[in-house]
Give the backbone structure.
Amino acid sequence: MNLYKYLIIFLISMVPIIELRGAVPVGLNPAWDLNPVLVYIICIIGNMIPVPFIYLFARKMLIWGSDKKYIGKFFTFCLEKGEKGGRKLEEKASKNGLFIALMLFVAIPLPGTGAWTGTLAASMLDIGFKRSTLAVLLGVLIAGVIMGLASMGVFGGLSALLS
């Protein structure tokens, strides 16, 4: 039945806002008894699959749907979130530093700072597809390590040692 559990974490890692940040702790739940390296790899793949689609199509779709009756508010919210993320990135970095800023933005394991928002912000800032995808991938890798260590209690142990 482990295949079913791996499929669940794969799908969770594709969900906006939750992404890998929610999937890794689920996969590393001791009751699930899954291989931590495999959990990490599967969550990264699941988190990265939507990235090209977001970069290439999300902005156009959000603009198209922002004035529609039933979906307009949600689409406008997503568009504003992407623009806000883009402005944050621009404020923190020069043109050459956007790559690092985008990577760090995605790496911070907080809701709203993941691959979805980072990719949407990158598309709004017209950071190139390859460059932004690489920055997002590096950010997702870092976020996965942080979430893995947090899920295994490493930060709690360090906190206890330092206090």
In short: The mean pLDDT is 88.
